[in-house]
């Protein structure tokens, strides 16, 4: 809101009469330009202040559609501050979270979504809030380079992957009829495969260091917590080799029997080819 007040002479001709020389005329011209600029700015501020929630929301949507994410975020924030109640303010929070996500500000996006979920737990679009929250964590876990080079995904910290999995799981459990469930479930399968693969990599590290019991425990964790993941074959193979090093022949033989029963001839020793994107993302 413009609060600037200018005290100007009522009769500008008095100034003109007192002006002498070219410098005075230049000063008057500069003053006139400044007055017009200030008046124009005040008019824009008054129009912005007078805009209702519908107009502000429409402006924010135009900015969002034009991928002007910072401008959209600013307009959504002004809308929710000026008109904190009503359907436009509620939807603006969701749209602002999406804009924050596209602007690569994941922490702010998650904070906005958590606030929305707490404030409007029965909102018709709260399922989208859970889905978008999962997407934010999912993109943090994957990243563009990790999409291009999937073999490097499992070498990263898996905390974001775990959070994304939990967000998608919350969506599927709370809103099984949501239109976002199908996509969320596919992403959950991918995340499950990635996390299982990462655990096996850790187990293999323990094995190379001679920590065979730790390798067995890590393999058992994969089998118990990631059923159906392709890495289960690797986990069983790793467990078998660890038992052999521990000279636990009976346990090694039992593990080999389970491995052959469930995965045929898979031994886990030549699994480099299976650690690609097709292995982790088994969808067309």
Describe this structure in words.
The protein is an all-alpha fold. It has a domain of 71 residues: Tetratricopeptide repeat domain (Serine Threonine Protein Phosphatase 5, Tetratricopeptide repeat), CATH 1.25.40.10. 74% of the residues lie in helices and 0% in strands. The protein has 13 helices and no strands. Helix 3 runs parallel beside helix 5 and helix 11 runs antiparallel to helix 12. It starts with 11 loop residues before the first helix and ends with a helix.
Keywords:
284 residues, mainly alpha, 13 helices, Serine Threonine Protein Phosphatase 5, Tetratricopeptide repeat, single chain, disordered N terminus, 74% helix
Please write out the topology.
Blueprint (H helix, E strand, L loop, with lengths): L11 H7 L2 H30 L2 H13 L3 H14 L4 H16 L3 H14 L6 H23 L10 H16 L6 H28 L3 H14 L5 H15 L3 H15 L13 H4 L4
Helix pairs in contact: 3-4, 3-5, 4-5, 5-6, 5-7, 6-7, 7-8, 8-9, 9-10, 9-11, 10-11, 11-12
